[in-house]
Amino acid sequence: MSAAKRFSSKTFAALSVRNFRLYFIGQLISVSGTWMQSVAQGWLVLQLTGSSVDLGIAVALQYLPMLLLGSYGGLIADRHEKRRILYCTQVSAGLLALVLGLLVTSHHVTVDTVYVLAALLGVVNLFDNPARQAFVQEMVGRDLIANAVSLNSVLMNAGRLIGPGIAAGFIAVVGTAVCFYANSVSYLAVLLALVLMRRSEFLPMKIVERQKGQLRLGVKYVAQNPLLRNVILSVAVVGTFAYNFTVTLPLLTRHTFHQTSAADYGLLMASMGLGAIFGGLFIAHRSRPTPKLLATLTLCFGFFMTLTSFAPSITWAEIALVPTGAFSIAFISTANATVQLNSSQQMRGRVMSLYAIAFLGTTPIGAPLIGAIVALSNPRVGIQVGSGVALVTGIWLVLSLRQDERSTQVLQMA
Question: How is residue 81 annotated by DSSP?
Fold first, then answer.
C-alpha cells in the first residue's frame, strides 16, 4: 500500500462505517447552511443597530440555555434514544430558520425578534448537542471515536469554509433572507441521513434509568477525574474569551479595516474555515489524543490568534486566520476526543453536556464581555484578550502535565 493510501485509510477510517458516512454527508450540507445563517444573522444585527454590544447579545442568547440547563440536556441524551432526539431537534431548528427568513422578507424583523429566535435556537441546541456528541460513538464504536470526532470537526469547518462564501454572495445580491431559507432547507439532508441509517448496525448503548441526583452525579464524576476536570476547565476558559469570532470578525471587518461588504467578512470566516479543515485532518490522522498535545495546541492557537490581532490589513488577517483556524479546531477536537475516551458509557451524555457548557455555554458570558471590550477599545483588543487567555491556559496545562508526571514518579518510587 502506498503512503498516500495509508494516510487516507487512517485519516478517514470512520467513514468506512456506513451509518457514520451518511451522517457525515448530511451534516456537511446542514452545517454549511448553519454557517450561512450565522454570517447573515451577524450582518443583520449590524444593519439593524450597528452596535457591537447588540451583536454580542444576539450571539450570547443563542448559547444561554446551554449555560443554564446544559446538564439537563445531557441527562435527556443519557435517558433516551439519540437518533429520536436528533429528529426533533433538526425539525425544530429548520422551522426557526424559516421563521427568521419570513420575518426578513416581510420587513417585520427587529433586533428583538432576532434575540427571541436566537434564544429558541439555543433551547434546541441544548438537547441537540449532547445527543449528537454521544451519537457518534453509537455509530462508530470506541476504537474509531477519536477519528470520528476529528472528522466531525473537519465537516463543521468545511461548512465554515463553504457557508460564509455563499452567504456573502447571497447577501450582496439578494439580501440576508435567502441565507435563512437555505439553512432551513439544509436540515432536510440530516433528516434523510437519519432515515437511511440501519438500526441493526448501531452499537448497543445503555439507556440510563430515571433516578434522583443524576445531574449531581455527573458533576461529581467529572470533578473526581483530574484529566476530565482539567480538560473541561481549559475548554471553559478558552471558550469564554477566545472563541468569539462571530463577534470580533464582523467588527474587525467593518471598524478596523473599514470594509462594508459582507464578502470581506465572509472571506475572513472562510480563511479560518480552510485552516480548520487542515487542523481537523491532522488530528484525524493521529490515533489518540494526549494531554501534551492538547497543551501544545492551546499555545499555538493563542500565538496565531495574537498575530491575527496585529494584522496590518484585511489580506494579512485572512492569511493569519488560516493557522489560527487550524489550531483552534485541533485544540477543540483533541479536547472533545479526550473527554469522550475517558468517560464511561453511562455518564457520556452528562459529561458531554458539561463539555458543551464549557465550550458553547460560556458564550453568553464571553460574547457580551468581548463585545463590551471592543466597544470601549477596538476589535484588535477584543482578539488580544482571547489570545492572551489561550496562552495562559496553555502554560497552565503544561505546568499541570509536569505536576502529574512528578506525582506519578513519586508513586512509582514509593
Answer: -
